[in-house]
Amino acid sequence: MQDSEIKIDKSIAKGFFIETRADDGVFILTHQNDTQEVKVIERDIDSNFIQFHFCVKGESQFLFNSGNYTLNVPEETSLLLYNPQRDLPIHLEVKPNSWLVSVLISIKKFHGLFSQEADYITFLSEDNRDKKYYKDGKISPSMAIALNQLVNYNLNSSIKNIYFKAKAYEVLSLYFNRSEEADIEQCPFLVDESNVLKIRKAKDIVVSRMAEPPSLQDLADEIGLTLKKLKEGFKQLYGDSVFSFLLDYKMEVARKLLESGGYNVNEVGLKVGYSTSSHFIAAFKKKYGTTPKKYVQSVG
Questions:
Q1: CA 295 to CA 259: how far, in whole Å?
Q2: Residues contacting 100, CB < 8 A, separation 6+
Q3: pLDDT truncated to tens, each residue of the chain (300 aa)?
Q4: Among 15, 16, 106, which Cα is nearest to 4's?
Q5: Does residue 255 come out as left (phi exceeding 0), alpha (psi in the -120 to 50 range) or beta?
Q6: What contacts 24+ positions apart, CB below 8 Å, involve 115-121?
Q7: Residue 34 φ/ψ region, left for φ over 0, alpha for ψ in the -120 to 50 degree band, beta for the rest
Q8: Strand (E) positions, the chain?
Q9: What is the pTM assigned to this prediction?
Q10: I want to staple 94 with a disulfide (CB 3.0 to 4.6 A). Which of 4, 39, 139, 300 is the partner?
């Protein structure tokens, strides 16, 4: 199982995916546009595949019907595409400094994974299985970690495909682990756009003050919601509690700071809010299964 770079006609575009076959009927495509140019990528995909696209960084835009219809995929957003009636080729514009990860899985493979869950997964139900479907959504912190690991990996080539197979299924399981994110018609909280804006503000507050975050009550007071609505709304919007979300975010920031090579373990711990390095090391090890020092050595 070899990686392949899917290149396209230079007169049309100048970008390419790096493609890895993770399993039978499962492919992972990644593209890092670290330039200041817009990269255009095209790839044929037939109607036998369900497409999951994740914009990890920056912004991407899908073009359909010769550009007559477009779908933007901003940072930290996902897009699911599925049309059993016709092929859905990728025609994609990746903006400067943007990263995209896509998971393609055959319908046959997907039904094999989720055959018991057809009623739970909307587009798999008997009524919908022959209808086209698309859905956008937010990338949760836990999904962001798995997706970044698909872009920033440092593995022996002999085990890379095992790793990518595991990550492909991890991303799919996290994507569908959204039972608490009820359909908007069943979720009166999310109908109120002002509440959604307040919850997003709460997320921005804890992220900007991650070293010294406010208490939940102070946070609720600051955004103008009750403590109960803050807790319920945050979980509905981000799929996690406030402090579990923040811990994931802090660990991801810590991981990137360690990878940059510009800070030692103590400095990184302080930046993400740990007054003692031992507490930071313990939290990092619990999250990633290795110490910060060993992690730096593994990516060095």
A1: 8
A2: 29, 30, 31, 53, 54, 55, 56, 60, 73, 92, 94
A3: 344 443 333 334 467 788 999 999 999 999 988 888 889 888 888 888 989 999 988 999 988 777 678 888 998 899 888 887 778 888 889 998 899 999 999 888 887 776 665 555 665 565 555 566 667 788 887 788 888 888 887 778 888 889 999 999 999 988 887 544 444 333 444 446 678 788 889 999 999 999 999 999 999 999 999 999 899 888 777 767 899 889 988 998 999 899 888 899 999 999 999 999 999 999 999 888 889 998 888 776
A4: 16
A5: alpha
A6: 117/176, 120/176, 120/179, 121/176
A7: alpha
A8: 4-6, 17-23, 26-33, 39-43, 49-57, 59-64, 69-74, 77-82, 90-94, 98-106, 133-138
A9: 0.56
A10: 39
104's tokens: 């393609």
Residue given tokens 């507490």 in the structure block: 279
Copy the structure tokens of residue 49. Answer: 């595949």
